[in-house]
Amino acid sequence: MPVKNRLAEMHGEITKWRRHLHMHPELLYDVEETAGFVVDRLREIGVDDITPGIGKTGVVAVIKGREETKGRVIGLRADMDALPIEEATGLDYASTVSGKMHACGHDGHTSMLLGAAQYLAETRNFDGTVVLIFQPAEEGGAGGLAMCQDGLMDRWGIQEVYGMHNMPGMPVGEFAIRPGALLASSDEFEIVVTGKGGHAAAPHDAVDTTLVASHIVVALQSVVSRTVDPIKRVVLTVGTFETDSAASNVIAHTVRLQGTVRTLDPEYRKIAEERVRRIAEDTASAFGATAKMTWTPGYPVTVNSEAETVFAAEAAEAVSGKVNDSTDPIMPSEDFAYMLEERPGAYIFIGNGDTAMCHHPEYNFDDDAIPAGCSWFAELVERRMPVA
Predict the structure, then answer these.
(1) What is the pLDDT of residue 5?
(2) Is there a contact between 102 and 46 (Cβ–Cβ < 8 Å)?
(3) Which residues contact 26 (CB under 8 A, 6 or more apart)?
(4) pTM of the predicted protein model
(5) From CA 181, how far away is CA 176, in angstroms rounded?
(6) What 3-state DSSP class applies to 356?
(7) How far is residue 95's CA from residue 101's CA, in Å, rounded to a whole number?
(8) Coil, helix or strand for 351?
(9) How confident is the model at residue 4 (pLDDT cuts 50, 70, 90)?
């Protein structure tokens, strides 16, 4: 694997950074210790400028190239937050914080960007400016949006932006990407069904919300099967079904359903919202109950720009020689999508080997992926901003 020699030399040090972060996971915007660790490393590395507190607890740093003749500015992003999961790996560097762990590899992403930063600060073999983006609250907190709302793109003059995520099941160090939609949007809904509670022995005197809600759950399956073009991708999941009574001999007065809708087509976000609301309200009405639906918009579709996807794939090919540039899109969501809505760019997957899937209590980032990941960031910068 033709990784940068300097980054291969730094592999052990970057691994130590990664494992330190793994032992000290933090959630959402409460990543002060992680952000502090990032700032300390960036100071040691010798970047040109560091600004904490962007998007509440994000960190932005700048590295200027050997030359600045074209005024080009590229952003590189890594996420910092962990998940509210109890770790079950048994590793000697496992999480030291009960109920929290880096179960999605953000410790690896942050460490790889720090490694690339050290290489770029040492060599400065590029013509332009690199903006390093260390983001909080990817796991449901929309930290990417918060950083954009804090003026990330305009304040630092970012023209293109790139991100990377590990992918269990792909060989370590290999890459995968595609132009267009890569990851789905993710919206949440809540449906509260209200009827008339009563005794299980006298259903005729009640309006059985458990029955009504069950019909709604079944009817919601038609949103995808009978509303969506069969060649499009939409996933609707009802994840919770909660009655207001735990007694077996009681007909509940209310039932609460919660679920998500994911799609690769922004048009279907609006269509799905309308259909879920109508099915809930009309089905409940048919049984003499009422239903109130609340829709909470989540992350948008992650859409890679055409030209920037080519640039990212070329850098991956140079690093590993193995890149799938037409990988299938997948249905998880990613708040890097907000950055791609503001600037052209691309998001790429790097193989994490035969590990547990992300968000699993036995997941662990594979440190053998570090040299390739660092090298991809660095190679991308040197290719996009070559020194004449």
Answers:
(1) 87
(2) no
(3) 32, 33, 34, 80, 81, 82, 97, 100
(4) 0.94
(5) 13
(6) coil
(7) 6
(8) strand
(9) confident
Tokens at 65, concatenated: 């190239």
pLDDT, position 266: 87
Mean pLDDT of the 370-378 span: 97
Using left for φ > 0, alpha for ψ between -120 and 50, and beta otherwise, residue 55 falls in: left
Tokens of 219: 């009817």
Joined together, the tokens standing for residue 147 give 């950083």
Phi, psi of 385 (to 5 degrees): -130, 65
The first and second tokens of residue 24, run together, are 């000290």
Task: Count CB neighbours of 340 within 10 A.
Answer: 24
Max alpha carbon distance in the chain (Å)? 85
Map tokens 């009817």 to a residue.
Answer: 219
pLDDT at 245: 95
Q: In this structure, are residues 126 and 120 in contact, taking their beta carbons and an 8 Å threshold?
A: yes
Phi-psi region of 157 (alpha: psi -120 to 50; beta: other; left: phi over 0): left
Tens-digit pLDDT profile for residues 334-349? 999 999 999 999 999 9
Strands 345-351, 175-176: pairing is antiparallel
DSSP 8-state symbol, 206: S
pLDDT tens-digit map of 142-158:
999 999 999 999 999 99
Q: Any alpha helices (H) in 230-265, and if so which ranges?
A: none
